């Protein structure tokens, strides 16, 4: 199984940007995902979709956040932002394993600030 991200079950999304923060002591962090043109909001899918969260799936299982916000301009979807909260060093390690798999499957790179 490859690593996938879905906002609506059954529709794999492409992430435009991911921004991560982590506490200096490693105890917690956040990952903010930006979807500029999510597939779940395009004309052919919008009648079928119900965005209930962001679902990150890979060989180890699924990571889920319900913290998802849509942005609209003139009544049309202009992107979606999802925030994944990381509450422990173990959750951070699991999240990073997922992100490495997702990046490899989707040709993404990592830039450390």
Could you describe the 3D structure shown?
- This protein is of the alpha+beta class and about 110 residues long.
- The protein has a single domain (about 5-105), classed as Photosystem II Psb28 (Elongation Factor Tu (Ef-tu), domain 3, Beta Barrel), CATH 2.40.30.
- Helices cover about 15% and strands about 40% of the residues.
- The protein contains one helix and eight strands, in the order E-E-E-E-E-E-E-E-H.
- It has one helix at about 90-105; strands at about 5-10, 10, 15-20, 30-35, 55-60, 60-65, 70-75, 75-85.
- The protein has a four-stranded antiparallel β-sheet, covered by helices on one side.
- Strand 7 and strand 8 form a beta hairpin.
- The longest helix is centred in the C-terminal third of the chain and has 18 residues, at about 90-105.
Low-confidence stretches: none
Neighbour order of strands in the largest sheet = 2-1-5-6
The major β-sheet equals: 4 strands, antiparallel
CATH architecture: Beta Barrel
Shape: globular
The CATH class:
Mainly Beta
- What is the CATH T-level topology? Elongation Factor Tu (Ef-tu), domain 3
Helix content: 10-25%
